[in-house]
Amino acid sequence: MAEDPGKTSQVRLAFRIGYIGTSFFGSQYQPDQRTVEGEIEAACLRAGIITSRQVSRLALSGRTDRGVHAKCQILALSTHNPDLAVRALNGQLPPDIWVSAWAYAPESFYPRYDVIIRTYRYYFSRPPSDINAMRDAAGLFLGTHDFRCFARIEPGKSPVKTIDRIEVISDENGCRLEVTAQSFLWHMVRCMAGSLYQVSEGEMAIRDLTQYLKGECKNKVKPAPPEGLILWDVQADLDWHEIPAPGLKVKRIARQSEELHLLGTVYSLLLPGREG
């Protein structure tokens, strides 16, 4: 457990958090919308962990869009009450956000720039028609490319990124794309997933994909829906201390999972021409 050094200095802490993105308008703070950062700030203010987002330099390791989930996102903040932060944060957060670990961090630690590697998973809602074609196409993304055809490029951002690992996996949980890099562009993983699915369905040729990876396209690739995307892992050079998941949150998420599975079954049975 963190020790409280008193009120004279602030301690920089990092937290490994997860969340279900369905009810959020993204992770980044927006004053008039429900966001992950907004809920975290409100929880910290209620608990007396921070006095303001600006003073605490509260920040996340990356931005996720509306509907995108996270199994491992890194939160950093500075506080005069580190012991309170470690003990109280999980209990103050809403049911769809949780903390799984904490660590001391250098005062200069800023998670968006100081993480080492990021891994995303994209789960496809429908199985691909040709998973081998998808796997062959995925290999083209390895290495350094111009991703301007696969992302929304913010002003001042370079479209060039390096993919360290990419894999298309099919198992009992369905078909997924798993991709690792130091950093990604806005919508980049969803556009990669969308293009690979188009290849599997014969809707995009390999030669077109090759051209897109040179930054040559009239129209950008359409991103896959956000619901299947999970920020799966974020690594930083920190000494993590695990925090047990709150039992009530675990039960509530498990119950929601069961309800959604039932709803999926009901929807499929209601399809015209489908017999029970």
Instruction: Report strand %.
Output: 25-35%
Helix count?
8
**Strand element count:** 10
Mean pLDDT: 92
The residue fraction in helices comes out at: 25-40%
CATH superfamily of the largest domain: Pseudouridine synthase I, catalytic domain, N-terminal subdomain
- Under the CATH scheme, which architecture of the largest domain would be assigned? 2-Layer Sandwich
> How many structural domains can be distinguished in the coordinates?
2
Distance between the termini: 54 Å
Order of helices and strands: EHHEEHEHEHEEEHHEEH
Unreliably modeled segments:
none
Radius of gyration of CA atoms, rounded to a whole number? 21 Å
Q: State the secondary-structure class.
A: alpha+beta
Give a quick account of the main beta sheet: strands, pairing sense, barrel closure.
10 strands, mixed
CATH class of the largest domain, named Alpha Beta
Reported by name, the CATH topology of the largest domain is: Alpha-Beta Plaits
Question: What characteristic shape results from the CA principal axes?
Answer: globular
Domain Pseudouridine synthase I TruA alpha/beta: 19-114, 137-235
Binding site for substrate: 120
Catalytic activity: uridine(38/39/40) in tRNA = pseudouridine(38/39/40) in tRNA
Protein name: tRNA pseudouridine synthase A
Structure description:
This protein is α+β, with helices and mostly antiparallel strands. It folds into two domains: 11-115 and 237-261, Alpha-Beta Plaits, CATH 3.30.70; 117-231, Pseudouridine synthase I, catalytic domain, C-terminal subdomain (Alpha-Beta Plaits), CATH 3.30.70.660. It is built from eight helices and ten strands. Strands 1, 2, 3, 4, 5, 6, 7, 8, 9 and 10 form a ten-stranded mixed sheet that branches. A hairpin with an 8-residue loop joins strand 2 (59-60) and strand 3 (69-79). Helix 1 crosses helix 3 and helix 5 (131-138) packs across helix 6 (188-200). The radius of gyration is 21 Å and the shape is globular. The N and C termini lie far apart (54 Å).
